[in-house]
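Dear V.,

Thank you for sending over the compound details. I've combined the ligand you provided, adenosine-5'-triphosphate, with the protein sequence from our construct and run the structure prediction for the complex. I'm sharing the raw inputs here so there's no ambiguity about protonation or stereochemistry in the SMILES, which I know was a concern on your side last time.
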Amino acid sequence: MGKSVMIKVEKLNKTFGDLHVLKDIDMTVNESDVVCVIGASGSGKSTLLRCLNFLEVKDSGTIYIGGEKVERETHDLNEIRTRVGMVFQHFHLFPHMTVIENIMEAPINVKKIPKDQAYKEAKGLLVKVGLSDKESVYPGKLSGGQKQRVAIARALAMKPDVMLFDEPTSALDPELVGEVLVTMKELALEGMTMIVVTHEIGFAKEVANGVVYMHDGRIVEVGHPKKIFEQPTEQRTKDFLDSVL
Amino acid sequence: MEWLNTFIKSYPVFLKGMWLTFELTAVAIFIGIFIGLFFAFLKISNIKILEWIADTYIFLIRGTPLVVQIFVFYYGLTSLNISQFLAVVLGLAFHNGAYIAEIFRGTIQSIDKGQMEAARSLGMNLKLTYRRIILPQALRRAMAPLGNQFIIALKDSSLAAFIGMYELFNVATTYGSNTFDYMTYLLVVAVYYLFLVLVFSILVRYVEKRLAVSD
Ligand SMILES: Nc1ncnc2c1ncn2[C@@H]1O[C@H](COP(=O)(O)OP(=O)(O)OP(=O)(O)O)[C@@H](O)[C@H]1O
Ligand SMILES: [Mg+2]
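Below is the predicted structure of the protein with adenosine-5'-triphosphate bound, written out as structure tokens.
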């Protein structure tokens, strides 16, 4: 159907000392796909995302971003990272900057976009995440859900082709999870390509068109959410789902 | 009220001495901050040889008395036709630089790793990340310990008297020895030091407050 490949991973391996954290990971994510990554703590989900954003140095394997084989040696990783947005579990907003400054920081200083244009775009993003009244507030004054929505806006400000989410709602009080998931769902509906590490099975069922189950550094099972959640092939997937549901 | 009389009569000379003390300290701290930042970056560079250079510098400074360092700078630099003032200032600056380096290293490393990652994930390079994200936060955190160090530097500047700088302490001992009334003049000079320390503390607190507005 002519959807282009956005991210492709081949035989990706990553170790921390003696610890083999990612084992021969193969993965393909097409444009406008929403792929949820699930798996037990320590199975390597975060490490996988961090490799995709080159925050972690892989041991071996190949990563293609937008069809292009990206290597640390030959590519400007800073430029690559502007195309791959990342949202963290603990937000990591810049506490010494206001909400709007957080969003404008990278467009102005990395992309060299004129201030007034960056400001206009940032305001647009704040409207989009429903926080237009928080423009001049410092992150310390925001709730967790608001912080995460600002973090999403900050990543979107670079106009990335893909967004990576690492447990974006895990640090939130239960009543604040919904607002962040709504924002993410809207983003998915707009056609953003997303890889989401999450334990929100409801979100995965509703929004994702692919689920990846990781266990002990390997991708054990991949499939449509319906299939993975209702008829998993692998016993390990079954056991994991029983434990989280 | 003999003491008060002495205090009032001697104030022109003491004010001059206080000004010199202030100048010595302020310039030394100003230079010391840059020295401190420089060595702090060497220490966090993850490059063995640079770390070793920083460690050696800090070891030498911490391991020897300030008065020795001042004499070394004094004899070393004045022999190169550098003014007495600048020689002492540099001595004080390099002394304080070692302590300031440790302060900066500590506060830079205390910034949550997530800040670095968030900035890098937005495509910011290392230099930009330090300049825009890490350092502004680290400097804020450094204000309190830096303030402490400034006050120590202020009092330490009295050692400049040993090489004949006519700063506060030298004024006091000179008057003391001329009149054989050391105690009175030492108490007088103590008041000037207390005043300076007070001014420094207020300044530091003011800056700290201004910076803290955003947190
Ligand atoms: N920088 C690091 N140094 C050493 N070991 C690490 C490092 N980062 C991760 N690990 C280890 O790698 C393994 C995988 O970690 P990772 O964070 O990718 O797991 P995860 O699936 O995201 O887990 P969680 O659900 O707890 O976030 C863990 O055993 C972890 O302890
Ligand atoms: Mg994780």
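A first observation: The pocket of magnesium ion (ligand 2) is lined by residues A 45-46, 166-167 (CB under 6 Å).

Warm regards,
I. M.
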